[in-house]
Amino acid sequence: MTLQPQRQILVVFPHPDDEAFSSAGTIRLYRNMGVPVTYACLTLGEMGRNLGNPPFATRESLPEIRREELKAACEVMGIEDLRMMGLRDKTVEFEDDEKMVKLVKDLIDELNPSLIITFLPGYAVHPDHEATARAVFETVRRMPKGDRPTIYAVGFANNTIADNGEHNLQIDVSSVKLDKVKALQAHASQTAWMIEENAKRTDDGQPMSDSWLHYERFYVINLED
Ligand SMILES: [Zn+2]
User: Fold this and answer.
1) How many angstroms separate the alpha carbon of residue 89 from the centre of ligand 1?
2) For residue 29, how far is its CA from the centre of ligand 1 (angstroms)?
3) pLDDT digits (tens, 9 = 90+) for 73-124
4) Distance of CA 216 from the midpoint of ligand 1 (Å)
5) What separation in Å is there between the alpha carbon of 135 and the centre of ligand 1?
6) How many Å lie between the centroid of ligand 1 and the Cα of residue 18?
7) Domain spans in the chain, listed from the N-terminal domain onward
8) Which residues, 6 or more positions from 123, have their beta carbon under 8 angstroms from its beta carbon?
9) pTM for the model
10) Of 108, 132, 172, 224, most Cβ neighbours within 10 A?
11) At the fourth CATH level, which superfamily is domain 9-221?
């Protein structure tokens, strides 16, 4: 299917690498069409558990490493407008609700996005993910009808499909699969182990299929109620 035309896309995730797993291919496809994309990354993922073995980072150096990885991933995806919002990793869930809504509202007021890509509330697994999704949905709900951007929501809890049905948007990103891989690789501090594991793993003696790289799946949400 062809991509819906967009005026401006706003991507809102709490951690560097959330965007690479969920939507790097979709972002790259839209950038290839010339659609402006702003990525508001709320934290630097500085509490990431993975410091390497042997350690490649300390608690002190990890934020700087992840900042550079994030910039490299954005370059691969073609994102020219990266906003590092400066919240603290693992504390987004404790931020004041109104502060979070204001953060999202300020971005929407400035950018007037036609589409927001974020997590699906209730199905985002991690507390920071949930807090991010809640803030985006609440902000959009408060906007006047007719002005509300469409949301492409990413859910990956085990019960996502049981509760919500199949995703109603599946974007074929196979033409930019290598860019998605490169975006994942750019977040090496978090993804190197996974890429290695995937390469080692086999399915019935065959190398694992890379079909998970071919499609990105979303729930298209129009909050018009
Ligand atoms: Zn995350």
Assistant:
1) 9
2) 22
3) 999 999 999 999 999 999 999 999 999 999 999 999 999 999 999 999 999 9
4) 16
5) 15
6) 5
7) 9-221
8) 155, 156, 157, 159, 160, 163, 164
9) 0.93
10) 132
11) LmbE-like (3.40.50.10320)
